[in-house]
Amino acid sequence: MKYLFFITIVVLGFWGCSSSINTTSFTPSQRLQYAMKLYDDKDYENSVKEFQAIILQYPGNSVVDTAQYYLGESRYQRGEYIMAAYEFSRLIKNMPASKLVPSAQYMLAESYYQLSPYFALDQRYTKKAIEEFQAFIDFFPTDPKVPAAEKKISEMNNKLAEKEYNNAYIYDKLEDYKAALIYYDLVLDNYHDTKYAPLAMYDKIKLLVTKKRNDEALAAISKFIEKYPNDSHLKEIEKIKSSLEGKLSASK
Question: What is the spatial distance between Cα 250 and Cα 20, in angstroms, rounded to a whole number?
Answer without folding.
Answer: 88
